[in-house]
Amino acid sequence: MTGGKDTAHGTATEAAGHPDWARELLEHLRPAGRDVRRVVDWLAGAVRAEVTLRDEAGATLAGTPLPLDETLAADVASGRIASAAWDGDGRHLRLVRVGHPTGACVLAVSRGEPFDRHASDVVTHTAQVIELLLTAHETQAAGVRLRRATADLRLAILQLLMVEDTVSARRVAAGLWPGLLDADTACVYVLESDPALRDRLAAECIERTRDQALVVRCPAMDGHVIVLSPREATAGDLRSLVERHPDTFVGGSVWQSLARTATAYGQAVSALAVARFRQDKTAVYAERTHPERLMDPAALRTWAARVLRPLDALPHHTRAELLATTRLGLEFTAVATAKVLGVSRNTVRARMDRVESMLGVDFDDVTVRAVVHLALHTQINLLDGQGPADSAASARCLTELLSGPAVTSWARQLLGRLDDDPRNVRRTLRTWIAAGANAERAAQTLGVHAQTVREHVRSAEPVLERQLLAAGTDLYEVALAHLAVGELEQPLFAGE
């Protein structure tokens, strides 16, 4: 009778206290408190017991490891039995199966006192909370994996476009973004923000463009987001996005064929440099007079084919890989090129070394890089329906191409902008280019300090409206201008 009274009194007390432990348990479902380890620790204190949470293999996920009957634990984990109880050696043990999307766990509770209704209820409800938390965690983890896989897929598509493999890029994109790359032309945009805010910016770009654009976190620049879109409306979408975010800028390319994605990317980066100084924080690459447009197109294409002819003996995929890597490597550093292409920088250097060897040139020479850059971009134009090289123009060489009146006039006008500077910036620039864009070597030739050379080159940039200290199209055009007016020696190629 005494035991009956004690039990009845205990049950009434436990029922009255039920809301308190239930509230405490539910607190662990709040976003700030979702931690299975904390729940297991709470359970240990709530029922005055030792508690462990094990996975199907027996590894401890939370709590204190306990000696268990492995056969019994395996039966609970497999679902043969939902729960089990065991008494012995002064201990009382409960095993409860906790299911989740990818398997099951076993919650083991060991205490010195028998399990009354209060303790049993707490264990049962705690197991349910742990199941919810594990399910939520796995769902969240699956979402993260899916977003990461999708981001990797977007990057892979961009990398295929960068090396002109449009067929493979379309095949990869067709599964998740049907029709995205069906268009023949597209624009590339590069958005710049604080690296800490880039993920949010990329997510907003995806939402704003409604999955009708390829949005990629730039692998080379932490603060950049690359957007490739065949839709004209994308420019307005991105412009309105930039307006709402301080210290965010966007540069865009002109319309290019998908095969010229690398060229469009370079244009967008160039426009981004301008956008940083614009009040509206946006800029589109300004088409200007490029020297190749002043040359006889047929003769230019024939010359380019002849310069690159040593590579023609290579298998098609190898040749395309080498040329695509070289094209990017001439625009950006080896590290940045490697990140954009998804290869190592040693691979980039090895490919460019191979091209150097086959062409019989040295890429340390800025004029060599400028001429190869001209040949590569002329070759791209063959993919844009401009026709094959004209064999009748095969007698043309680089000297003849650069000595045409239109090219010569353009070069004199461009470099003539520097003549008014009393510091003789034009001479410094010419010497710096001849020294492989190395300020120290140019300074030794001129008898000045290296910092003076850098200041002269930097001061020439706004006058020429071209970036010179960063190797790329702008620098190569200035080098070609020097070749056209005869102020630099023309390089020799194995193919010429």
From TrEMBL:
It comes from Streptomyces gancidicus BKS 13-15. The keyword Nucleotide-binding does not apply. This is DNA-binding protein. Residues 334-377, 426-481 form the PucR C-terminal helix-turn-helix domain. Signal peptide: none annotated. InterPro entries: CdaR-like_regulators, PucR_C-HTH_dom, PucR_C-HTH_sf. One of its GO terms (molecular function) is DNA binding. Gene3D superfamilies: PucR C-terminal helix-turn-helix domain. PANTHER family: CARBOHYDRATE DIACID REGULATOR, DNA-BINDING TRANSCRIPTIONAL ACTIVATOR ADER. It holds the Pfam family HTH_30. Keywords: DNA-binding.
